[in-house]
Amino acid sequence: MASRIRPLLRRLQGPRWSRSGTCSSAMAPPRCFALELPDCSLAHFALEDPGAAGAHQDPRLPALLGPPGRSFALCAPAVTGGDCGARVQAARVQQQLQLQLRKGEPFQRCQLHRLLGYSPGEPAAGARHGFLLHDPAGPDTWGALLQVLGACPEPARPNLGEFEADASGELWLRLWALHGDAQRQVSCARVVPVPAPPVHPVVLDLPSSAVFPDRDAARAVLEECTPFIPEAQAVLNLVDQCPKQLRKGQFPVIVIEGLDATGKTTVTQSISEALGAVLLQSPPSCIGHWRKIFDDEPNIIRRAFYSLGNYIVASEIAEASTRSPVIVDRYWHSTATYAIATEVSGGLQHLPPAHDPVYQWPQDLLRPDLVVLLTVSPEERVKRLQGRGLEKTREEAELEANSIFRQKVELSYRRMENPACHVVDASPSREEVLQAVAHLIRASCY
Fold it and tell me: What is the pTM of this model?
C-alpha cells in the first residue's frame, strides 16, 4: 500500500494541486466527517495535508475504515443558502441511494453507516449527508458503486471516496470525480481523528430541512415537490385557504401528545366528551388520507407535509375554539420531535442542547393553552402495541426496533418550550390517567 500511495503523493505536487493535495478547480477545502458507529456514538475525523506529520489514531476508525475489506464514503454535494429545490433533490437522491445500498449484490453483504460531512467554522456551508459502506470481502463493490452513482443526476450525484491503509497503518482517503463512465482521482489525504464539535453538525440545518420555523419555509418545500407528487399541490391549495393571522377563541385548547400506544385515543375521546369539546387531530382528515404517500418520501418532504398539516388544523382550532373547548390529538410538538430524532445521528448526547431555538414554538402558528405528554414504560408500550395488531408506520417500526431513537423522541418532547409539555404517566388505570389529565386542565385552563 505504501508503494502505491507515496508515488501518488509525489505526482500530486504539480501546479494544479494545492498543498492539501486537492485539485482547487474541482473541490472545496477538506472537510470534517462524523461517522455513526453501531453503538450510536460518533467518530469524528478530518482530511489532513499529506505532508504533515503522523497523527494519533482513534482505534474505532481503522476497525471500520481499514482492512480487512474495503470501505467507501458517499456524500451528497453541499447545499448552501436557501436553495430549497437543491435540498429536495439531494434528499431524494440520498433516499434512493440508501435503498439501493441496502438491497441486491454485492451490497447485501456490506455494512452501511450514516456519514456526515461538515465544515467547522463555516455554518453557511451546511452538512453533507452520506454513507460509509464497508465491504468485508468482494472486489466487485467498486464497479457496482460506479453503476449506482452513474445513474444519479449530475448536480446531486454523491461524491465517492475510497479508504486505504498504508504499511504503517495510517488511513488515507482517495476522492474520485465521476464524469459519465470515466473516473478521475482528485485528492488523496490522510484520515486523522478530530474532537467533536460543540453542537451536532446538522443542528444549524434543521430549520431549513426538518423543523421549519414558519409556514412559508414548509410551503417552499412542497412547492418543489409538485412536479413529482401531485398531492403536494392539493395540500398547498388547502393551506392557502387558511388565514395567516389566526386568533384563538375564548375557550381553551388542549393538545395531547405521546408515542403510539400511550393512550392518546382513550384520553382525547374521554376528555373531549367530559368537556363537551371539539376533537381534532393533526394532520387533519382533509389531508390525512395522503399520509402514506408522504411517509414514503425523504424527511424534508415528510416534515413539510406534517408542518403544513399543523397550519391547516390551526385554522380549524381557531374556528372551533369560539364555540367550545378544543382537544387536539398531536400538533407541532410531534412534528418537531420526530424530525429532530431522525435527522440528528448518534445517541441522546448529540441532540440539540436544552433551550436551543429548535425547541421553540413557531411564531406564526396558533398556540395551545396546554400540552399534555402521555408516557409509559417501553415494555408496557410494546405490550399494548402487540395487543392492537395494527399496521406499523415506518417511524413506529423504528421506535420498536431502535431504543435510542425512541429515547431521542422522548427527550426532545421534554425539551420543548413555549409551551412546554406537561408529562403524565399513562401506565396506571384508565381512571387514574383521566383524573391526572383532568386535574392539569382545571389547573391550567379554568
Answer: 0.88
